[in-house]
Amino acid sequence: MSIMDHNGGSVVAMAGKDCVAIASDLRLGAGAMTVAMNFEKIFPVTDRIYLGLTGLATDITTLRDRFRYLVNMFTIKESRSIEPSTFAHLVSSTLYSRRFGPYFTEPVLAGLERTPSGGFKPYIAGADLIGCLNFAEDFIVAGTASDKLFGVAEGLWEPDLGPEDLFETISQTLLNSVDRDAYSGWGAIVYIITPEKVITRTLKGRMD
What we know:
- It comes from Russula ochroleuca.
- Keywords: Cytoplasm, Nucleus, Proteasome.
- This is Proteasome subunit beta.
- One of its GO terms (biological process) is proteasome-mediated ubiquitin-dependent protein catabolic process.
- There is one protein chain.
- By secondary structure, the protein is an alpha+beta fold.
- The chain has a single domain (about 5-205), classed as Glutamine Phosphoribosylpyrophosphate, subunit 1, domain 1 (4-Layer Sandwich), CATH 3.60.20.
- It is built from 4 helices and 12 strands.
- It has a 5-stranded antiparallel beta sheet with strand order 10-1-2-11-12, with helices on one face. Strands 5-6-7-8-9 form a 5-stranded antiparallel beta sheet.
- The longest helix is centred in the first third of the chain and has 22 residues, at about 55-80.
- It starts with 9 loop residues before the first strand and ends in a 5-residue tail after the last strand.
- About 45% of the residues are buried.
């Protein structure tokens, strides 16, 4: 078993029309044994940016605190909130600085990028464990159920989905995918990020 699969877990982010969504399962495992059913893998960075982390649970908690520190330092130094594209490169450089002894995590971030006209546009990105960024206009997946997430998301995602339609799409994608993966599941949490608010919903899933 790969060290990336030891604790299990999956994350997916999707872009919509002036909104983004990010969702993860809630399982924490030790191989095939389930340890906890409330292990969240998505963390707020700002009001408009959320970061999902899959992989080794200890590295997830380490990077969560590390990024929180770096974002706070950026805010103090620049006197402004960090934008998703800037945060993506901060994630990349942080992971690449440890490339010879990497953190065993694959980050997925979702946010709303401010445009020159004053509006917002969806921004999603992912990275491998040494910080190679991957940008997408539709969806990004990571974790032990990533193969299944790719297949289901390609069938369900459509351009310009509104917040409610995006919630339904990302929820069905995640629940149907983790049902076919022994290392993910046991419920899920979904965040829908809009310019006005962040909607958080917890989903019930198969408990076996």
